[in-house]
# Entry
Amino acid sequence: MPDIGLQLYTLRDDLKADFEGTIRAVAQMGYEYIETTGFMGEHSPTVKQLLRETGLRIAGLGFDLPTLETQPDAVTDACKEWNAHYAVTFWIDEAQRQSADDWKRIAERFNRIGESLATGGVPFLYHLHGYEFTKYDGKRAIDILMENTDPRYFHLEPDTYWVEYGGVDARAFCEQYAERIRALHLKDYSSKPEMHDIEVGEGAIDMRGILRLALQHGWRWLIIEQERYLRTPIESAARCLQNVQRILQELRSEL
# Structure
């Protein structure tokens, strides 16, 4: 079975109000992993203690591109210190992605980053945000990126919501690049065109089909994330986990 984590951005306001209590709540919901950002900074001692006490572990750590390019050794060291299984970047500045040639240059940068991190045993992932489906000279940016990156050093973390926001069926996209996926952000929405977030498995995205692919292809990391809510963020995070666990159990009995 895949390992299920929570992207802590889901609980960003709760963390600001009560960092320790919120982390404990994540563990009490039944999550075993979290995905978070950077070097932890001021929260580092608190996080270490909470991980020891709750049994939570870190799936992956997020870093911006300048940090990944200029401090690969520090990124590798941070991942090892926290026992994180991958490093991921979440955004490419708009000014750097205006043409097909820009995306080829991004691919070169990603290859260099991935090779640097690989020397320390850390996989490098990229989280999609929807703009990757813009076409340049008739070809989608994501396809340019994938054609020009080395599968040894670069992997995907698609976000199901943002793939669909980009106008593409999330299940079909995940199937297209199944061999390049190492982690998956599970995020759902109620309906188009407003696309308001809803708990994973209760919206318009074919989550059952996507989770079937996860089982078939052995994707290890399923990371739940929600940015807007109809319930409280804590309630939404718990409900998302319950839904994903239920669907996975049902699929296992079918396969």
Notes: The CA atoms of residues 183 and 221 lie 5 Å apart. The longest strand covers residues 57-62. The mean pLDDT is 96.
